[in-house]
Design brief:
Four copies of one chain form a homotetramer. With 316 residues, chain A is α/β, with parallel strands linked by helices. Helices cover 17% and strands 35% of the residues of chain A. The relative contact order of chain A is 0.17.
Chain lengths: 316, 316, 316, 316
C-alpha cells in the first residue's frame, strides 16, 4: 500500500536553479532545450517548456554558485494542501506562507530535513499561449517548437542529501510519497531512493552526498517524447559546446533512457525518456538494488561515470 | 477538480475479448504482439504482455462472434473497492461477487449502463516470470521479447455505446473517472468521451454507436515504448497478412500516435504511443472538439477512415 | 547490367525551383527545413542543406509560377563529363556551355526530351563552413542544425513528363542512368519510372503528366537521417501552417518513408528516408508494378491521395 | 579523384566467420540478428539477412578458434572482374579460381598482403524466397522478420593488419578502393584506414594490430534501418546474455551509430546505422584524424573501451 497521504501531492510543478551566469543558463534552456522565456523579476528569469500546463517550468536565479533553489509541488486539492501543510508543521520544517510567488497563489514554504527549499501550493496560473506560440492542437499548452532537445515537460529532481534515511522518513511519512526503487549498500545504508507522487515511476530522488554536505543538487531532469529526441539532442549539445557528461544510454534503475549535460551555470541536467513505463500498481513493491548490482553500471553495460559521484552543485 | 472517488480505481487491469477463432486470435497476440500464453481454462486462453505486473493482460474467449467481454478494473485499496461497489450497487448495476476469476481475488461484477460487463477487484496475482522469461532487469515483469509489435502493456478500451451521456454520468458519478477530452456535435450531443482514472490521459473511452446498439466494442489498445515500435509493427502486420485499417499517424484528440489493425477474430486493435504526455493537473480542463474540428481528420491531415464509423464488434 | 555510361554521372547536385513568393519559399527552406541562405544573385536565393558537400542545394528563383528550373548533375570526372556531353549532343538536346553558374565551373546546358532544363558539370565549389556553422565533427559539411525537418541533403527529383518512354530512352541511352522500378499500365505504357545513377535506389523519376503537359514538376525530395525526423517534421509543418498533403507513411515502390508538403510557392516537397536500403547489385533487375498493384496504395494500406494525380507545378 | 579501378568492385558480398561453437554462432545470427539458415555444407552453415539480394550473407565455419575466413567481393561486370584479377595476379597475391563456392559462379581466390583470404566473383545466385518468407513487397529479398536486431544487410568488415600502409597500397592500387577517412599517429603512421568501394562511406577497414599479428579480425558489421533498431537490439542482447562490449553511441569517425557485441564464438559484431550519410563526391577528400583527436573518444564523449584495443580474433 502507498503511504498515507499518497496523491495529496499531484505532481512536481517547477524548480528554481541558481546560476552564476543566469543569462547563459537562460540561453541554454531557450535555445537548446526549446523553452520560452516568460517572465523576469528581480534576479530571476522564468522559462516554460512547451507542454507544461502551468505558467513556467524553471526559475533561473542569479547566484554566486550553481545549485538548486526552491522546488514547487502542486497539491491535488485545497484540502490535500491543508493536510500536507499540517504534516510539515508537525515535522517542524515549515516556514510559513508566501503570497508573492510568481505564477502561484499562496505557497507554503518549508524545507526537507536536508535543507532543500520546497513549496506547496494549489492555486496556479495556467500557461496562456500568445499569438506567436498558439498550438495547432488545443490539447497542448503551446506550439511544438521542433528545435534542439525539444523537451516536453519537467520530469524529476535528484537531490544530494547528507542523510538519505531522514529524507526517506520525511518523503514517506510527511509528504506521502512512495518509494519505488532504492540502492542499499552492503552495510544496510540506503545510498539512493526514488520516490513517486503519481503514476510516473519517480518524481523526487535522494542520493547520498559523498561529501556529507546538505542541500545540494545532483540533477534536474526534463522529459522528451522519444529516445530519438535524446539522440538528436546529443548532436545539438555537441555543436553548442555543452559538456556532455554521459549517455545516451539506458539506466538499469528505473530503465530511463538518459543523457546528462552540464548547463553553463554548472548544474547537471538530464534528458530522460521512460517509454510507456508507468507505475500503475497501487501496491508497487519497492525494488532494491545491491551494492554489487549498482557496480555493474547501466542497463547495457556502460560504467557509471566517475564524475557522477564527484560533481554536485554547489561545487564544494 | 476531479470527480469524487477519483483514484479509487487505480488502473485498467485486463480485458476479455470474444473471438470466433480463438486460436488464431491467440497467435496474433503471441506471435505478433509479443505476448505469452499463460493459462487456459474452459473456452478461454490468457495471454500476458511483457511488462504488465499482473498475471495476464487479455483473456481470449471463444464465441460465435467477436466482441468485448469483461473489463477488469483494479481498485486502489480494499477501502476504495468497497466505496466503488457501494456506488455501483446504488446505481442498480451490480451483479454480485465472483470468487472464481483467474488471477484475481474476489471480483465484484457489474455492467455499465450500456451493458458492457465489468469487474472490480483489489486482490490480484502478480506475474511470476519463469526460467525462460526471467528479465535481466528486476524492475520489469518479464523478459523483453524484442519481436513484432512488442507491446509493453494494456493501454485503454474504447467502447461503442448507445447512450454516451448515460455512460458519462456513470463514469464520472459512479466510477469516479474524469473526462479529459470529448467530441460534442453541433446539436450538443457528446459523440465520444475520453475518461482517465490515473495520470494517463485516458483509460476508458465511450463512442456513440452509429447503429444505436448496446455493449459493443470499438477497439482495445496496447502501449508501445516508441513510435518506431509502431512503424516496425506496420511492417510486421503487412508480412503477416493482418488487415491494417489505418495509420500509422497521430490523433488530434489526445495526440496518440496510432496504428489500427483487425485481429483474426475481427476485433479492432490499436497500438498506441503517447510520448511523454500525461495529465498531471488535478483540475484538468475538459477539452471539447466540435463536429467541424472532428471533420478535419487526424493531426497531420489524414482523413478518418470510413470503416472507423462502420466497423464495431460484434458486427451487426 | 547497367546501361553504358553508368557511373559517368556521380550524383544529383542541386536543383532550381521557381516560386512566385521566393522570400517565403526561402523561409520555408531555412526555418523549417534547416537550410542556410548562402548567396543571392539576380532573382535567385541559394540555400544549403547541412551535409551537402557542395556550395548550395537549392536555387530559388522568383517567377510568376511555381515549377522546376535547372537540375544540376555532377559528372564523376572530366572524362565522364565529356562522354555525357557528347552523348547529349548526339541526341540533339544540347544547348552549349555556361561559365557563369554560381558554385560551379563550366556547366553544359541541355534539356531532357520533355523540356526539363538540366546541366552537367564536374568542377564545383565545396561548401566552406564559417565561424557560425563550423561542425564539431570534421567529416560533415557544416554544423548540425537540430531544428525543424533538419534535412541532411538533396535526395531526388520527380518530374512530370508528357512522354515517359522518351524520358526512359534518354535516361538510359544518353545519360547512362539505370531504371530500378517502374509502374506499367495494363496497356503496356510505363506510367512512372525510377532511375538511379549511383547506389541510392533512385535519383531521378519520371511520372506521366495527366495533362500531357511538358516540363512540369511532381516533387523534389530531401533526405533525413531517421523516420523520427519525419514524424517530428510533421508536427513542425502543422504548427507552421504548411499544407501537409499526405503522410507520414511508407511507399510500396522503393519503400521510402515519406511526407509530402507544399512549400509556400506551391511546389510539392518530399521528406524521405530509405533506412539502410541501397541498390548494390550491379545487375539489379528492374521491378515492375502493375496498374492493379499501384491501385492498392502505399505499403501499409494508405490510399494514394487524389491530389497526387492532379497537382503539379506549374499549375495549369 | 578515386583510384583507377574504382567501381570495378561493386560491393562487399558475404563473409566467412570461424567459430569454435558454430551452432551457437548460428543461433546468434538466426535468433537475435533475424537471419535465416539457408544451407549447410561440410563444417559450414550459411545464413541470410532479410534484404541481401544474394543467396547468403554469412558463412559460419567450425574451427578451433574464432576469426575471419574468406571475404567475398562482387565485381561490377565480367570485365571488371577480369581487370581486378589481373591486378591481383600482378601483385603476386592470387591463388587461382575456385568453381565450388556455394552461391557463386567461379571465384578468384587471393589474399591481401596481411593474409586475409578474399575472393572475387561476378556470377552469383540471387536469394529466392520460399513460401514461408516471401515478402509482401516485391522489391525486397525476403519477408521482414521483425525480430531482434533485424539487420537488413551486411555492411562492412574491419580487419586487424600487421601493416596498414601495405594494406592501403593494396586496397587503392590493386583493388581500386578509395580511402575516405583515416587515423594518422603523431609519427606519421596510419593506425586505421576506412575504404569505400561504392557510395557507402566505407566497406572495408584496416586497423593496426596491436600484437603485430597477421590476418586477424576486428569486427564484422551489419546495417539496421534505424537507430531505434539498435537501441532495441541492446535490450535483446541484454536478455539473451550476449556480451555487450560498448554502445549504443555514435562514432566520431564516419559518424556511424553503433553497438558492439561478441557473438558466442568470440567474434566482435557491430550493428551500425549511417542515417542518410553517403559519400557522393567522386573526389571525396580523405579525412584525417590525429592521435589527439582519436583520444577524445566517440562523438558524444564516450571513451573508447579498452577491449577495443585488446580483443581481436583469433585471440592470441
Amino acid at each position: 500500500m502507498p503511504p498515507a497521504g499518497f496523491h495529496d501531492i499531484a505532481h512536481l510543478g517547477s524548480v528554481e536553479l541558481f546560476s552564476p551566469v543566469p543569462e547563459e543558463t537562460r540561453d541554454f534552456f531557450v535555445d537548446l532545450m526549446a523553452m520560452k522565456e516568460v517572465h523576469r523579476q528581480g534576479d530571476s528569469i522564468y522559462v516554460h517548456a512547451w507542454d507544461d500546463y502551468e505558467s513556467y517550468t524553471v526559475k533561473i536565479t542569479g547566484r554566486d554558485q550553481a545549485g538548486i533553489g526552491r522546488t514547487y509541488l502542486r497539491a491535488a486539492s485545497p484540502e490535500a494542501l491543508q493536510r500536507r501543510v499540517e504534516a510539515v508543521e508537525a515535522a517542524g520544517l515549515g516556514a510559513g506562507w508566501s503570497k508573492t510567488e510568481y505564477g502561484h497563489g499562496p505557497v507554503y514554504l518549508f524545507t526537507d530535513p536536508d535543507g532543500h527549499e520546497m513549496g506547496f501550493y494549489y492555486e496556479t496560473e495556467w500557461y496562456e499561449a500568445g499569438e506567436e506560440d498558439r498550438p495547432s492542437l488545443k490539447n497542448q499548452a503551446s506550439a511544438f517548437p521542433g528545435r534542439g532537445a525539444n523537451v516536453r515537460r519537467l520530469d524529476h529532481v535528484n537531490y544530494l542529501a547528507s542523510d538519505v534515511p531522514a529524507a526517506r522518513d520525511f518523503m514517506t511519512g510527511t509528504l506521502g510519497a512512495r518509494p519505488t526503487e532504492q540502492i542499499v549498500l552492503d552495510d544496510g545504508t540506503p545510498a539512493a531512493m526514488w520516490f513517486s507522487v503519481c503514476n510516473k515511476s519517480y518524481d523526487l530522488v535522494f542520493t547520498s552526498d559523498w561529501l556529507g554536505a546538505r542541500g545540494r543538487l545532483h540533477h534536474v531532469a526534463f522529459a522528451t517524447d522519444t529516445r530519438e529526441d535524446i539522440l538528436r539532442a546529443a548532436d545539438v549539445f555537441l555543436e553548442a559546446g555543452i559538456h556532455i557528461e554521459t549517455g545516451p544510454h539506458k539506466h538499469a534503475i528505473q530503465q530511463t533512457f538518459f543523457l546528462y549535460v552540464w548547463e553553463p551555470g554548472g548544474n547537471r541536467i538530464e534528458l530522460c525518456n521512460a517509454g510507456a513505463r508507468l507505475v500503475l500498481a497501487p501496491d508497487w513493491k519497492l525494488i532494491t538494488w545491491t551494492q554489487a548490482e549498482r557496480a555493474k553500471g547501466q542497463a547495457w553495460g556502460l560504467k557509471t561515470i566517475e564524475s557522477f559521484h564527484t560533481h554536485g552543485t554547489p561545487v564544494l
